[in-house]
Amino acid sequence: MPSDPQCSPTSDPPRGSGTSAVEVRRSSRRSRTVSAYREGDRTIVLIPARMSEAEERRWVSVMLDKLAAQESRRILGDSELAERAERLSAQYFDGRARPTSVRWVTNQNTRWGSCTPVEGSIRLSHRLQGMPEYVVDYVLVHELAHLLVPGHGPRFWRLLEAYPRTERARGYLEGVVAAGWLPHLPVAPAE
């Protein structure tokens, strides 16, 4: 661990997390961003060194709420996602694609989903949350197909032809990616 961050444990337990301690780490290299993560039974909050104690307390509260919301969404959403995958497998693959786990993840920023066929695990990027159902279903069907056919060869794409909204969903996702590369235009003030 670098010698720069200053650590200060707080006595406030994180709300909704079941953990017992919060550790605030200050860094002079961190200029504006604040982040937080779980490390065992502790919550680590990273803040700029110049932040006042009042700002620290506010940001610790904000980050604890954010982590709790993410964990709550993941806990509630994963079982629904697994049920959805089971229904889609039955509908499009006669139930042959049987994942051992299906869950949302927050560490996929360049992929919409991933599958490890050997383990039977499917992970979907949290960036899909809030997108139309047919788009999420397409990504699930895509990953389910990998349980049957690894890789993206002709046999894999033939499997995906069973899902009727494949092209529409792919177009939607391509649009999302393209929009991310567009410069943000100034918004005209409302009159």
From TrEMBL:
<feature type="region of interest" description="Disordered">
    <location>
        <begin position="1"/>
        <end position="34"/>
    </location>
</feature>
<protein>
    <submittedName>
        <fullName>M48 family metallopeptidase</fullName>
    </submittedName>
</protein>
<feature type="domain" description="YgjP-like metallopeptidase">
    <location>
        <begin position="96"/>
        <end position="173"/>
    </location>
</feature>
<dbReference type="InterPro" id="IPR002725">
    <property type="entry name" value="YgjP-like_metallopeptidase"/>
</dbReference>
<feature type="compositionally biased region" description="Polar residues">
    <location>
        <begin position="1"/>
        <end position="10"/>
    </location>
</feature>
<dbReference type="Pfam" id="PF01863">
    <property type="entry name" value="YgjP-like"/>
</dbReference>
<dbReference type="InterPro" id="IPR053136">
    <property type="entry name" value="UTP_pyrophosphatase-like"/>
</dbReference>
